[in-house]
Amino acid sequence: QSLPQQKLLTWLSVLECVEVFAEMGTARVWGEMGRWTIIVVIQLAKAVLRLLLLLWYKAGIQTSPPIVPLNREQQQPVHPQEVEESSSGKDHTYVGRRSSRVVRSLQSTPSLQSRHWGSPQQREELQSRRAEEMNQPPTPLGLQETLAESLYITRPLLHLLSLGVWGQRSWKPWLLSAVLDISSLSLLSDLKDLNRRERAELRRRTILLLYYLLRSPFYDRYSEGRILLLLRLLADYVPGVGFVTRPLMDYLPAWQKIYFYNWG
């Protein structure tokens, strides 16, 4: 990736990390008008950054989070002792005569901090496979797939615009957002030869369609009572589950009111 593309990904990651804090802090200081203002500003900035990555840098299907978390096992430094042993030609493994099991020799045992319980061959294969997956270039998108990704990127802006036109109690913003999400996934479903990260991202977007059960006005009219009733039954009749469901019952109404939790 080029340096400008890395900077765009960094700023996009920063926005995703601070968006909930910005929404809640602005609502506390400037009220409801300030809250919706910062929501529009953040969603507009995210859409612009994502469109630049899609159309200018050909980043393909964009994942969330934009920057893949660091795999510390894969990034473990090579210890001088291991380098010295490998250069001296010492065997790192021992093969059992009867069982044919490959075990690490005592001479090549690493320090406790970098020790793992798999065979050296398994670790090397896993690290090489992960490195290969990370270095895979994004799948080129055709016109249909680019349109589908553009729909997914601009969906938050169209939803906010429809909220401003029809209001928060109307079904039209909810239906418009659902149609855009389903249309984007349908257009991207024909894309073949996706890498591992892109397939995981499409699965994540499909699972996130369940959020429409928790989004207003569907949640206010249909889901709220049924979900709270189910959680209450689990808490009352299933031993041990109440430690999870009772805090969830108290937290769900507050979670549902925060835009970036259920719409972002």
TrEMBL record:
Region Disordered, residue ranges: 72-139
Entry superkingdom: Eukaryota
Q: Could you list this entry's UniProt keywords, alphabetically sorted.
A: Peroxisome, Peroxisome biogenesis
Q: Where is the composition biased (Polar residues)?
A: 106-121
One GO term (biological process): peroxisome organization
Q: Which Pfam families match?
A: Pex16 (PF08610)
The primary location reported for this protein is membrane
Locate the compositionally biased regions of type Basic and acidic residues.
Answer: 122-133
Q: Which family does it belong to?
A: Belongs to the peroxin-16 family.
What protein name does the entry list?
Peroxisomal membrane protein PEX16
Q: Which organism is it from?
A: Baryphthengus martii
The record's gene field reads Pex16
